[in-house]
Amino acid sequence: MDAANKSTVSEFILLGLSDSWELQMFFFTVFSLFYVATMVGNSLIVITVLCDAHLHGPMYFLLTNLSIIDMSLASFATPKMITDYLMDHKTISFDGCITQIFFLHLFTGTEIVLLMAMSFDRYIAICKPLRYASIISPRVCVAFVVASWIVGIMHSMSQVIFALTLPFCGPNKVDSFFCDLPVVFQLACVDTSVLGLFMISTSGIIALFCFILLFNSYIIVLATIKHHSSRGSSKALATCTAHFIVVFMFFGPCIFIYMWPQSSFLVDKILSVFYTIFTPILNPVIYTLRNQEVKTAIRKLKDRFLNSSKTTHSYYF
Questions:
Q1: Residues 114 and 66 sit within 8 Å (Cβ to Cβ)
Q2: Beta bridge partners of 173
Q3: Sign of the CA dihedral 217, 222, 226, 229?
């Protein structure tokens, strides 16, 4: 009993996605490219919105914050995973594992609330356009962002406090490329069936409930779009479609992993890749390829940069 009441594990071994050297080199190359593309693409969105006065509206303010969260979500575990592919021993300290759990739930919890805020923004813009300016004010947008971070911090703290109460007295092999409760809690020296209920109630059900709310809001928006002009409809439909792709790709894996915390490790690892590596790159891809305003702003920013470079070059030569 004494051994079961005290954690004796000081580090965990991360098994990663595969033990094949060839596959590890393939993952190293692919994930490195994805990570660089994610950071560059989201940074470009942030810089473009900040530099173009035409994009200083509520939707792009929320989009900028979403890009910042996505860069953070892509950075809490991916750089370590990439470097681990070059190491023989892939380990992480107990404190480092708890830190990954904290940041994962901080950024995912924050993004969930922010995606709901963006959905509400689109709902008001399309369903109540005459009241949009009075409802979605700059103060409301700031309140959305602050609330999203507060909810994220509260949610992540609950997960960390729960993880710190678990006794780890033996197995220390985490069958994933980062630490998260669905895989870590199964190493605890207690009955994991009870812990599974905690996972479902604190993460799975919340994610499912939020997804249902978002899905219903987009159904209402799409129904409203039918009554608009064809030009306005196509633009609104493109925007809502882009938002829903992000929502589905983000919520789908989260709901599955946390609603069935004792499912196949292989399935969990594949789904984890989606919301930690693939989803963060969706924003720059979707909002630059499908949004004419952002594409125009990026072209202006590029022309401004090229003209500045030419001026500097002429000055020195």
A1: yes
A2: 13
A3: positive
Does position 230 have pLDDT exceeding 70, yes or no? no
pLDDT of residue 32: 94
CB contact set of 197 (below 8 Å; sequence gap of 6+)? none
Contacts (Cβ under 8 Å, ≥6 apart) of 181: 101, 159, 162, 163, 199, 203, 261
pTM for the full model?
A: 0.85
Domains annotated for the chain, with CATH where assigned, are 11-296 (1.20.1070.10)
Residue 27 neighbours by CB under 8 Å, 6+ apart = 17, 18, 85
289 neighbors 282 (Cβ within 8 angstroms)? no
- The pairs formed by 139-142 with CB atoms below 8 angstroms and a separation of 24 or more are 140/58, 141/58, 141/61, 141/62, 141/117
Run of H or E including 51? helix 21-51
